[in-house]
């Protein structure tokens, strides 16, 4: 299938090479991550630990911290029992289970430097082990504090894109549209957007993947205060000109949207991206208006209408 009938300039430098897409697989997931399965890497890399701990989800991060905390205290509880539970003054456990938990909770108090005083070490070896654990606890909590600060201070985007694109009447023709909003109450300034279409094409009896930048009506705004509807005018120079949804599906079309903006809260540049596949493009539809004016004349944004689409008869 030859998707273009005219000479155009392709952009093949997006990091995905020219390998064709099969079975309509995404190249970029809706959350902006690359849809790539990586193999051949070690399960654990020490020099990559910080990156993984800072970028993983919050539930997984707290689970890792909790598991590490339990494992460390269990390890020291076993050591205290091996040295002899009688070396922990105040440990009154009789059964092995009670003795283990006496040592476990003593370890938890020692590693956090709480030291309630109910149980205390005696003997040189036990005191050395308790001192070492206390030092380890100071280092561990300093590290955990640094990780928490790193996670909170890392600039992240809360820009949300509409779930679908629409092809709607625009000026004297049609336009390919999607829209986005900033879910935070801060300001994004100097916002820039790129839209690129990717598709399969037969060239010299070989299927390759093409990338074509889609010209936008406006690719930069000064401040993102309301929603922003991105519009690619479908003119004769557009690769979408006179193309049906069936043709888009045969070419396994995917549209990338990449945004860059300056966040005035973090005072840093943020990036976000998403993609739309051919089945996420609605023909002859339009987005519902997201904002209105209340009785006082103030502009009100209704974020719940981000994905509301009306089919045109």
What features would you describe in this structure?
Keywords: Ion channel, Ion transport, Membrane, Potassium, Potassium transport, Transmembrane, Transmembrane helix, Transport, Voltage-gated channel. The chain is α+β, with helices and mostly antiparallel strands and 313 residues long. Helices cover 27% and strands 30% of the residues. It has helices at residues 49-55, 58-83, 96-111, 124-153, 245-250; strands at 88-89, 120-121, 159-161, 165-170, 173-182, 188-203, 206-213, 220-224, 228-234, 254-263, 268-277, 281-283, 285-287, 291-293, 299-301, 309-311. The strands form five sheets. Strands 3, 4, 5, 9 and 12 form a five-stranded mixed β-sheet that branches. Strands 6, 7, 8, 10 and 11 form a five-stranded antiparallel β-sheet that branches. The protein has a two-stranded antiparallel sheet with strand order 1-2. The longest helix is centred in the middle third of the chain and has 30 residues, at 124-153. The model is unreliable at 4-8 (pLDDT under 50).
Computed Rg? 29 Å
Number of helices: 5
- Residue stretches low in confidence (pLDDT < 50, at least 5 long) are 4-8
Shape label: elongated
SSE string: HHEHEHEEEEEEEHEEEEEEE
Q: How large a portion of the residues is in β-strands, by DSSP E?
A: 25-35%
**Mean of the pLDDT scores?**
85
Largest sheet: 5 strands, mixed
Span between termini: 31 Å
Structural class: alpha+beta
């Amino acid at each position: 299938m030859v998707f273009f009938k005219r000479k155009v300039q392709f952009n093949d430098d997006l990091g995905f090479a020219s390998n064709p897409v099969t079975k309509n697989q995404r190249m970029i997931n809706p959350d902006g991550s690359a849809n790539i399965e990586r193999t051949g890497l070690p399960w654990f890399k020490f020099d990559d630990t910080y990156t993984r701990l800072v970028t993983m989800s919050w539930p997984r991060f707290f689970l890792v911290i909790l598991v590490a905390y339990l494992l460390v205290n269990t390890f020291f509880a076993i050591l205290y029992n091996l040295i002899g539970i009688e070396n922990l003054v105040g440990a009154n456990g009789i059964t092995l289970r009670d003795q283990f938990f006496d040592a476990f909770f003593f370890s938890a108090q020692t590693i956090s430097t709480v030291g309630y005083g109910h149980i205390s070490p005696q003997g040189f070896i036990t005191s050395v082990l308790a001192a070492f654990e206390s030092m380890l606890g100071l280092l561990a909590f300093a590290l955990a504090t640094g990780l928490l600060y790193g996670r909170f201070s890392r600039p992240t985007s809360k820009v949300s894109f509409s779930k679908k694109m629409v092809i709607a009447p625009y000026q004297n023709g049609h336009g390919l549209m999607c829209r986005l909003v900033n879910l935070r109450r801060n300001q994004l300034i100097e916002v820039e957007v790129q839209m690129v279409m990717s598709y399969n094409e037969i060239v010299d009896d070989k299927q390759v993947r093409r990338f074509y930048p889609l010209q936008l009506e406006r690719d930069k705004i000064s401040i993102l205060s309301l929603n922003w509807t991105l519009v690619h005018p479908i003119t004769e120079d557009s690769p979408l000109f006179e193309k049906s949804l069936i043709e888009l599906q045969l070419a396994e079309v995917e549209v990338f949207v990449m945004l860059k903006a300056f966040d005035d809260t973090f005072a840093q540049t943020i990036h976000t991206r998403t993609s739309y596949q051919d089945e996420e493009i609605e023909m002859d539809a339009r987005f519902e208006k997201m904002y209105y004016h209340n009785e006082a004349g103030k502009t009100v944004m209704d974020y719940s209408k981000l994905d509301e689409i009306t089919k045109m008869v």
